[in-house]
Amino acid sequence: MPERGTQVALPGLARLLVRGLGYFTWPLRIDDYLELITPLWSVEERRGRIERVHRETDDAVTVFITPGFRWVGHQPGQYVRIGFDVEGKRYWRAYSLSSDAARPDGQVTITVKRTDDGVVSRFLNSSQAAGSIVTLGDVEGEFTLPSPTPQKLLFLTAGSGVTPVMAMLRALSRQGDFPDVLHIHSARAESEAIFAADLAALAERNDRYRVRQLVTGEAGRLKPDALDDVCPDWRERQTFACGPGAMLDGLREHFASAGIADRLHMESFEHMLLAEVTGKGGSITFSGSGITAECDGSTAILDAGENAGATLPYGCRMGICHTCTGTLSDGSVRDLRTGDVTRAGTEIRTCVNSPDGDVTIEL
């Protein structure tokens, strides 16, 4: 069964045709025959092939992927869920797309920074990734430029947070009608600045794009109250920010105190769990394995289950990729990001929900 969100959406007549062909190919699947032609063809899921890997820094690479059948495209700034098979196990991750949506070769790119404990990021930063077949999930996210494009923009990025903004900049460059853009990008060291050469080249080609690259290991992080110095007209600009949670929290508070919270647009792939949100806690029964775990009201069901010895599906661990989803068959849970309560009969993400009393989950 393909992963949720990866299934190929077929028209009604095509679905009937596929179902009929399945009787003739049984016990093999239709995909078993299609894969003899190309592994990118599938009637069950969307796939892609990693064509090449380009090194950006010592610990970051851009991965070029050719999408297969019925790729739906993306808007610059969005992210995609991707399934990677590493050492016989599938891992799901959500990555911002760093490419324009209209590359002539039809490829899409993601840019990935290696982390010591990241199975997928280490794989992509190795020499083994090129040629791999991946599974493409849904394209999601609202961190996109509005239409028409604002005439004055401020981009604030840090670390790998530059990736969705790079997609926006590439799209603006292709369209040719570049607005007034100031971009402040932070990296711990000059050698760690992803896309440094690309951003500098873009500024050389377009006098309406200005980039300032900060080395935080020397000068410290950009503080929100320094915006008056680096961008005196920041209140007049639509601001798009992507980076660590602490950076975004500071910007959110700063823009709110200035009365222009609606001018700030943010993206983060860090846990955004609220400290003041807790459930009642309770006993969790995983009906698939029969394992029971005790959980307090501030711990995610996924964490509690793993601590009790349950082997549970997971991907992003941030409530994005849906890999950890299971059906709540009894009880209720509380979303640790929003405080919303979900009751039995609904699918829930175990990485961002905590029990609100005793619960049973079909996992």
UniProtKB/TrEMBL annotation:
Pfam families in the cross-refs: FAD_binding_6, Fer2, NAD_binding_1
Cofactors (names): FAD
Alphabetically ordered keywords of this record: 2Fe-2S, FAD, Flavoprotein, Iron, Iron-sulfur, Metal-binding, Oxidoreductase
Domain FAD-binding FR-type: 43-146
MF (Gene Ontology): 2 iron, 2 sulfur cluster binding; metal ion binding; oxidoreductase activity
Coiled-coil annotated spans: none
Domain 2Fe-2S ferredoxin-type: 282-363
CDD domains given in the database record: fer2 (cd00207), FNR_iron_sulfur_binding_2 (cd06216)
Stated name of the protein: Ferredoxin reductase
